[in-house]
Design brief:
The protein has about 325 residues and is α/β, with parallel strands linked by helices. Helix content is about 30%, strand content about 20%. A hairpin with a 5-residue loop joins strand 6 and strand 7. Helix 6 runs parallel beside helix 8. The protein binds fe (ii) ion.
């Protein structure tokens, strides 16, 4: 009870400081509701926040642990109800040997214990163990492909509920015959998805998290070969057709992109923690993560700079 009161007090304090409690000023970033409805949020005890951190690419080099720790500290300061990650937790196990890959997952696991709230992980292409030709490990290894991730984090696709919203994390990856990764939702998972949402009321807002995007403007803007999206994403959209799909959270591209489709659902590609391999921005998107505030049937979002760009520039200056 006391904890709940403190949370409400701190929320009121935030709203007062930002002016939201006094007047109906919309959030600085995209909101999916007209600003007048934001006033309702102040009174809505069922509103909640969560953070979406994607493409962490943790490794011991390049001050990556320092950068990730800054993100963890910022999330703890914001104090959302939980964290969802968008895959590529580590860099990299696709080509790796067992010891190196295991140490990367251990590093991620140890560091992510620093989050003061639950963390729901998603698998990315760099988390697929030993799938590339150049890996010294064989396909018979028990940790091959999804195995190492599953041993550390459990199932690669699952769902959970929070305050009337249904959250689904998908595994958007498979391996091609010539040993490359591809964006694909395998059939066993699609069957599970059908069964999972059968139990969900048609009006319940649903959030899907996927590493490989289901919708993305990258290829339209940049051309080049290959798609940056999962090639059977439409199968997932068809399954969701008669449900209240609200938001698709995506990783992989390391850029920030938002869209709202047919007055039905939103998609958000959430930048990255690692930027361009910890060297700088990728596609001009600053390193950061997304904070999402849910209120009733709607949400607003904000891209959070956890200070890594400034810190990395300072570190680079000191080495000159
Ligand atoms: Fe990535």
């Amino acid at each position: 009870m006391e904890e709940k009161k403190n949370k409400m007090d701190s929320r009121r304090k935030f709203l007062l400081q930002s002016g939201l409690a006094a007047v109906a000023i919309p959030f600085t970033q995209i909101s999916c509701q007209p600003s007048k409805d934001k006033v309702v949020e102040v009174e809505n005890e069922d509103s909640f926040e969560f953070a979406f951190l994607t493409d962490i690419h943790i490794k011991p080099e390049m001050n990556a642990p320092k950068g990730f720790q800054m993100a963890i500290d910022k999330v703890n300061e914001l104090n959302p109800d939980f964290v969802i990650t968008g895959g590529d937790l580590v860099y990299d196990t696709m080509r790796g040997n067992y010891e190196q890959s295991e140490s990367l997952f251990s590093l991620y696991k140890d560091m992510s214990k620093g989050f003061k709230m639950p963390v729901y992980n998603c698998i990315g292409n760099h988390d697929l163990f030993a799938i590339y030709e150049e890996s010294p490990e064989s396909e018979d290894h028990p940790d091959y492909k999804y195995g190492m991730w599953e041993r550390h984090f459990g199932k690669t696709y699952y769902s959970f509920d929070h305050k009337g919203w249904h959250f689904i994390t998908l595994n958007s990856l498979d391996v091609t015959d010539n040993k490359r990764y591809k964006g694909y939702f395998h059939l066993e998972q699609l069957e599970w998805l059908k069964q999972d949402i059968e139990k969900v009321d048609k009006s319940t807002p649903i959030v899907i998290t996927t590493h490989i995007p289901m919708i993305c403007t990258y290829s339209q803007l940049n051309g080049g070969e290959g798609s940056r999206t999962a090639n059977n994403a439409s199968d997932v959209f068809k399954i969701m057709e008669n449900h209240n799909l609200k938001l698709v959270l995506q990783g992989h591209i390391h850029w920030k992109e938002y869209g709202f489709v047919n007055d039905r659902f939103h998609f958000l590609t959430g930048g990255s923690i690692a930027g361009n391999g910890w060297k700088g921005r990728r596609h001009n998107t600053k390193e950061g993560f997304v904070k999402i505030k849910v209120s009733g049937n709607d949400f607003s979002w904000e891209y959070i700079d956890h200070g890594w760009e400034a810190e990395r520039l300072k570190l680079a200056d000191n080495t000159i």
